[in-house]
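It would be a great kindness if you could assist me with a short task in structural biology. The matter concerns a single protein, recorded as an amino acid sequence and a row of backbone structure tokens. The record follows directly beneath this note:
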Amino acid sequence: MHPDKFDAAAFLRDHWQKTPCLIRNSWAHWQNPLDPDDLAGLACEDGVEARLVTRKAGDWKVEHGPFAQKRFAKTGKHPWTLLVQAVDQIVPDVAALIEPFRFVPNWRIDDVMVSYASDGGGVGPHFDQYDVFLIQGLGRRRWQVGPIADADAVMLPNDELRLLANFTATDEWILEPGDILYLPPRFAHDGVAVGDDCMTYSVGFRAPSRAELIAHWCDHLLAELADDDRYGDPDLAPQTNPGEIAPAALDRLHAMVSEKLNDRAGFARWFGSFTSTPKYPDADYTPDDTTSTKALRKALDRGAALERNPASRFAFVRTGADALTLFVDGDGIDCSGETAALAERLCAQPRIAADPALAKSAAAVELLEALINQGSLGFAD
């Protein structure tokens, strides 16, 4: 499925990180990609991040999964919402919803959260720190959008839901199946199901904070620094007042810090690893049976298609005219020539038709074999 006649360049120019955008009836042939019962089933599985939000007499309550199946038979008459995170990593048809939004770089994409709500269900008025495309999959939902909120906004006393105490809507729409609402970061909003069987797919994007970048980059640098890398002043001369921290000393001390912090090549390699680390890094996707070089060459010879693991993250940073570093699930792999071209293809789309010529390239086979055997890449069914 792909949005029909969607102008990505115009959207980025006029709306991205600027203003909300409603896109009506945007799919040529919309089909809801996930059955509500299947979503509930996922929420009962270990390792799946799920929440159940209920509202009774203005009081909001959050429960965390995994849930017992009988829990959904006891939701009662009060409005409720089930939210399941990263469904794209489990359900291929949900992962396909990301593809139309690939005009945003891969490293910015987070996941697809799927929600199911009863009549009147929602999570209350709030704001997020990231961009999101809200795709109405089933039923109807009323979205109210207000002005930009900030850290000074007054919040309700709820530790698990950051709900706005004062919310005034400036726009309101009811979304039908296939409609999309884009919201930039920090715009206050509130979505409420109109009728039962309301499903919404939230394609969310990552936006690391300055504090997060500095903290993780510095942690990485500290882990690499040797204890004997210390201040030195072999040209020290007598100074008038021993209590002064002299300008020359400050310059040298500052340089010790800034030289490491300002290492752009080192930062690029660290960030590639940092941003390609999977959302759930403890998950193990290593296949039960490894693929041998011989078997891989045979599969490539017959043109077997390759596809990325939906839970894996692929990105690259160019390091030269014909060279790049491929980052997959936190690991950096230096590539050049034909392997660099292959790496670009792997990053450009989730599935590629393998060229039989790859079987004759030892470097390409080595790269693909490593990615397959770590579970980041596999043969398409």
User: Anything to note?
Assistant: The first helix runs from residue 8 to 14. The chain is about 25% helix and 25% strand. The chain has three domains: 8-205, 210-235+243-262, 293-379.
